[in-house]
Sequence to fold (784 residues):
Amino acid sequence: MENFTFWSPTEFVFGRDTESKTGELLTRFGAKKVMMLFGGHSAERSGLLARIRESMRAAGIDFIEFGGIRPNPTADKVYEGIDMARAAKVDFMLAVGGGSVIDTAKAIALGVPASEDFWNFYCGKSKPDTALPVGVVLTIPAAGSEGSGNSVITNEKTLQKISVRYPMLLRPKFAVMNPELTMTLPADQTAYGIVDMLCHIYERYFSNTPATELVDSYSEAIMRDVMDQAMTLHFQPDNYDARADVMWAGTLAHNGLCGVGKTEDWASHRLEHEISAIYDVPHGAGLAVIVPAWMKFCARRNPDKLWKFAINVMSVDPAGHDTDEIIAEGIHRLEDFYHDLGLTTSLRELIGGKEPDIEAMVKSLERNMGPTLGSYVPLSMDDCREIYRLAL
Amino acid sequence: MENFTFWSPTEFVFGRDTESKTGELLTRFGAKKVMMLFGGHSAERSGLLARIRESMRAAGIDFIEFGGIRPNPTADKVYEGIDMARAAKVDFMLAVGGGSVIDTAKAIALGVPASEDFWNFYCGKSKPDTALPVGVVLTIPAAGSEGSGNSVITNEKTLQKISVRYPMLLRPKFAVMNPELTMTLPADQTAYGIVDMLCHIYERYFSNTPATELVDSYSEAIMRDVMDQAMTLHFQPDNYDARADVMWAGTLAHNGLCGVGKTEDWASHRLEHEISAIYDVPHGAGLAVIVPAWMKFCARRNPDKLWKFAINVMSVDPAGHDTDEIIAEGIHRLEDFYHDLGLTTSLRELIGGKEPDIEAMVKSLERNMGPTLGSYVPLSMDDCREIYRLAL
Fold:
């Protein structure tokens, strides 16, 4: 195990009707003027926004609203939000939604007090030293952004999708997590979220750090449960207990717990970001394509952890089979799981049957990430090209 | 799953040589005048205290020292510490040790700013509204006090051993956790710690709350790993990786993670507190006696979770056996595990071969806890008497 620091300061307020506590939480964390961010119309239609407005009014909190935030959130929307928040003298960001809304709120939180372009903090030009506080009412369990210091923004001008991690500034103060709010999520969005949270664990699980038995073991337990609950939700989308497990697992997958004491990987996420930046497909859909291809490639060079994954997570019986067969069966079962969720594992199919521009993706990857990627198997750009091909 | 709030604000700084960061951490958390608490001579002899003093001096932090804190820490020592801390105008408590030292630091932290007797906050007479901040350098993984808002103090005058939980006030700001510091722990202390942390998980695992698959599953993973690592340490006490797993598991066992969404039990802890309060035996040694007896008793009234425990944690093969047999074998294996660690599971043997005063324990239990105890199986005082008898 390597040295590490673990810190999970976000107050997770989990369970039925918890959104009614939003005003009280905002007051406790010192909010005076709030910007409430949200995505499309579903939060309005379901009455969620009305309930949160009511809760804020009851707590005497003044607020403005900023809606229409889309998946793969863009820098344009961040600039718009920064202007609006500055004009209204907002002192607290409240994200009502999933990763896209939370990540936009975090980007605006960095931008409002900054004297420079917020994008500098994403493209690596400079580091922020302050940010507005952020609170969350989570409606899509997937990105884990409610408990992380991460934010992913796409710059459409430069075609860059960049993830940053500023844990001291961007960890939400609180996250309201009511599993009931996720019951009406369409099957595809539920599936994307499940693929994403599982991948957040893979990126930490697939590590060469020795002696990580404890963290491997509880990570495997979380992965197995998420897969079980995913199948329950596939047939019973309004099963509260399955929604609750998936929601809490999404947080644990990304609040650092599954990565303690390890060198993490994150190559699959980087490889996927190029797909969704160029073709605007959902991140989870992109991951379902990339992860099996990444695993097939890595099996050739570093099979150990893939063997363990096949047995302990995908329940492959090792008796009478060699390592290659065990790993292949594990990956095959993972692909079957994605198919059962209604997802494709073919890159060509994902982008509508066209031929993807692999060279453009590799070029952009190199520009964003440099010549190598990942750590479980360090990948050259030729390796990345090969993984995109394996994903076709 | 029930509604819950999870919050783990303590900064855990984990790994080799991390005690050298103590001064820097104290500075970051605003300490000006520190009281460093510790137990016996081992921290001095090992050079640990010298390294921490050096780290505080390098950070320009003024400090006083308060040593000699013993297992099952007493109210007397707390009063002494409060006087000393007030006289020196201490603004930060630094506990160097295990649960006893940390719990004493927390009690002093409550007492210093209070205008009333600190014991009022333990015996239930009143609630505290402020406390000095507490930091920890952990040397004994067991109590989980480094990540919890709990403190257990024994009042020798009243023969009461009382546990309180004030998470908003008593969660340590930081906990330095270097597994190397635990390598020289004697085998019995290592064993007591392992029994204690496992029991912190049992108290949460044995719950009647339905639909807790996710938390059960990662709790089982942690329990299995701790038992594996315990056997490694029995033969290789200086195995860093096993020490690291046990240390991190001790924190996860008690920072709330394993109890989310559940009604917890805590009857075993209450039953044990009477033993260690009256006979001054180590808490972990008392738990090794109480837990199997509690399980045998509960098996009669509520077998379900004990059956799951036997199979998923104690690896009992259910094939061809009925529920009673499976549970009995699970408890038998747990007793064997305690015996392998060199511990007795007999109350009589624990207190030196005498006949324990069960009536005195039951009487004190009723005074401290009222007429019933626990939730997995709610226990009357007659039930508690029976459990003490089963433990003989």
Observations:
- The mean pLDDT of chain A is 96.
